[in-house]
């Protein structure tokens, strides 16, 4: 009897030791994975910083700095102030668009709260690599705000950006095609217009086939990912949200109209930035440049698009006959206006936690 009790005690100790060893291995593996992710993120930021400063250094080595500073000294601050106002108008209209999409999903939110989250997104778009990083931060806070509708609010933000992107491509392609004859002496700009047109068609094709692709993904998850039911549930929720949007024609049309307002505000911001530098550029050229810059900055290959944006502007304006000093001044001034508005978003981020409890509007 005593021997059996000792045997059971030894077996129990072995099981506890094995459990502890398994837990230790799991913890160790988790820490290694987290360490690899942190190391990857660190080196990713280092690489993006090198890309930004390498491109800026290269552009700077080609400039006549005396001419560049003479342009900077002649900046008209009144026009620059108007550019800042239109930069602010973009955020106001985009927050109204997102509120409209949430309303279609029966998720009530105050207009001020939608604006706060839009400003927080702006701040992190400037603070993090790429031009869309702030959207993921906005998704995080939106899910925290609506814990029962995490998938719906996440999809609404992504769909909001998708509408903005599609309207952006359509506007840029339309302006480019309407004034294509004026580009006979600018082959680079002609190629840019064709690139925009091709990208627009591919995006519209993707949008048309998106529900079918998601349903196909659900079938694949049922067949091969049976253990991870969460994947199937998320895909099903996304399809449901898109089905709701599909039958809200009026609200989607209104969201597209607001997107047109967002992009026209961006174009007018560029108009006033160019006016502050005493540049006389046609509206259609600024529209095409705005689209190209927005697309390039959204790529997570540099810090806030620095260097990549400036190189693109110098190339696009250079093909139209604008000297690189003036083109670089236009790019840096546009970036400064945007970054100043984004830094104001940092104040919204700092006060967000205090105001979160009063953010959701009560259903009427």
UniProtKB/TrEMBL annotation:
Subcellular location: Cell membrane
InterPro entries the record matches: L-PG_synthase/AglD (IPR022791)
Major localisation: membrane
Keywords: Cell membrane, Membrane, Transmembrane, Transmembrane helix
Keyword Membrane: yes
Domain of life: Bacteria
Regions crossing the membrane: 41-61, 73-93, 162-180, 192-214, 252-272, 284-306, 326-350
Protein name: Uncharacterized conserved membrane protein
Annotated source species: Candidatus Methylacidiphilum fumarolicum
